[in-house]
TrEMBL record:
UniProt keyword annotations, A-Z: Heme, Iron, Metal-binding
Gene Ontology MF terms in the entry: electron transfer activity; heme binding; metal ion binding
Domain Cytochrome c intervals: 45-144, 190-284
Recorded coiled-coil stretches: none
Presence of the UniProt keyword Ribonucleoprotein in the record: no
Organism whose genome encodes this protein: Adhaeribacter arboris
Protein name stated in the entry: Cytochrome c domain-containing protein
Amino acid sequence: MGIGLGCLVLILIVAYAVIYFKTESRINKTYTINVQKIAVTQSAEALTQGEHLVQIKGCRECHGEDLGGKIFIDDPQLGRLVGANLTQGRGGIMREYTKADLTRALKHGVRKDGKSALLMPSDEYNSLSVEDMGALMSYIKSLRPVDRELPENEIRPLLRVLTFLNKFPLLPAERIDHTKQSVQTVKSEISANYGQYVATGCVGCHRPNYKGGEPLAPGFPPVPNITKSGNLGKWTEDQFIHTLRTGITPEGKKMDPKDMPWTMTKEFTDNEIKSVYLFLKSLPEES
């Protein structure tokens, strides 16, 4: 029995060593990006749209209310993940980031050093129009400096295993088509096409087919199906809007904003929220 247990321990050590070095290789991979030129202005229109995008994209969930950065995951098994200080204050990345660096980080999920950002939803930002990306960058560059120095990220064993198995979206640069060019503008109108543009922010949790599935990580709840073959199929447009703006479903369930970020979706404009409803209702039912 002692020999068998020793062999098992040895196998586990070797397996984790393989996982460690494989994930380290992926984490330290460098990307060379041909960055698309994005205009940055300080016009009132751009700053207003940029602030709106910060609200509906959930930037403050990871980077703090003042966008001065915060630790957003600190778990003994998963590790510590830190949202960077996005200002020009002490500890802020904008003290060093150029416009091209910021474009690379937002659109491609690649840091200034060429390595992938960690758990940054750049695969969602990658589809932003040039106009919207420029507005988002303009707003970030206008932020009041926040002096806040933060600790480094720390990847612990469970997170490495989940990353190795592709069960946790740690490395956004791996999932992005870095040759894709953004369209100049996307018209804000009530349509399923515009809804698809807005609903890219739902893909990270609800999957590319919007049908949800298994939990995003251990301890998380299963992700619901938000196509018409799920509960959405029973909801009217008014009920959908009420749910996304109050966090209360037609069935009377109060949604936890940690699981469903309705505190973000409540900031959708009428055009955005109605278009998302049209898009989700247009998706094919499960066969």
